[in-house]
Amino acid sequence: MIRVADEVREALASRGAVVALETTLVAHGFPPGEGVEVGLESERQVRAAGAVPATVGVLDGEVRVGLTAEELGRVEADARKVGPRDLAAAVAQGAVGATTVGGTLAVARAEEIRVLATGGIGGVHRGFPHPPDVSADLAQLARTPALVVSAGVKSLLDVSATAELLESLGVPVLGFRVDTLPLFYGAVGGPPISARVESAEEAARIAAAHWQLGGAGLLLGRPPDEPLEDVEPLVEEALAAAAAAGVSGQAVTPYVLAHLHRESGGRTEAANRALVAQNARLAGEVAVALA
Description:
Elements lengths: L1 E3 L1 H8 L4 E4 L2 H5 L6 H14 L3 E8 L2 E4 L3 H4 L7 E3 L4 H6 L4 E3 L1 H11 L3 E3 L18 H8 L3 E4 L8 H10 L4 E4 L18 E3 L2 H13 L5 E4 L10 H13 L7 H12 L3 H24 L1
Parallel strand pairs: 1-4, 2-3, 2-7, 5-6, 7-8, 8-11, 9-10, 9-11
Antiparallel strand pairs: 3-4, 3-6
Helix pairs in contact: 3-12, 6-7, 9-12, 10-11
């Protein structure tokens, strides 16, 4: 069920540096047609750091680990959003599947890939338990020995509640040269992290020690280089609009992102593009240090 690209397989066999990349941001994180370039830029940043990118998606009844540019172009806005629970169904039904962080982690666990890069991870939705919505990203991270590099938790979520749940699950939350968890678009104001790191090498040492002690996933929060600190009112406005329109479940994130991009005059889209690339570069550096 899993087809691994030759380049990725060879890197894994030689214990080289590999970074897994999810594809929901390609399919649903940007306006139609624009996500592919974001995905390709992430791959370029991973390679620039000296690692091999392993972009994950579901195509033609297989989980593909290491997509070609042509294959990545098939992961469009109508692709099925594939978390850990959805992988088998997407494969068996021959669906085009865009993997979430959790879905990508499930594949990374099977293939023993230790580093993943994304924009932001899922978590506890605002207003919990109404709706009773918690992303599968967290549970999968808690059982997968991998380090996820992100700009913190997705901006539409309850960041403090997500940080508390990560603590309960035993997931270390590291801050890359910061003392608080980045707020996706923003760099400050988040909850305290469990440890600050100053370099990719230091993050790799902590990850290796965590795994030797029997731990599983870790989250490394990297603040964006050019943060936007005035997005919160737009997020609240977007969530209210989603609720009024009856949007729920997996459809909320793409709806909110589209609203943010539109109402910010494209500022959030540009910031999102930049932070995804920055995270990919750091993930590549951590993977090289681990290798």
